[in-house]
Amino acid sequence: MNANHPIGKDILENMLREHLTDLPEDPDLGIKPELYEKLRLVNDDLKNTQEALQANLKYILGCTITGSDDIHLLWQSPSYIILDDRDGILTEGLCDTIEFECDRTLIHQLHSEMATTIFRNFTEAPPQKGAVWIIKVPQHWAHATQSTATLLTDLIKKGISPTQALDYWMVEVQHKTVPNWATEREKSTQTIRKNIERATERIDNDSHSHRYTADHYFKPVYDGRYTVENRRIVTVNGHHLDQRTDLYDYSPSGSFSWGYRGAGPTQLAAAILCDVFGPNQVTHDMITAFRGFCNKTMGESDHWRIDKDEIVEWHGQYTDQDAS
Question: Which of 84, 87, 268, 300 is least crowded, fewest Cβ atoms below 10 Å from its Cβ?
Answer without folding.
Answer: 300
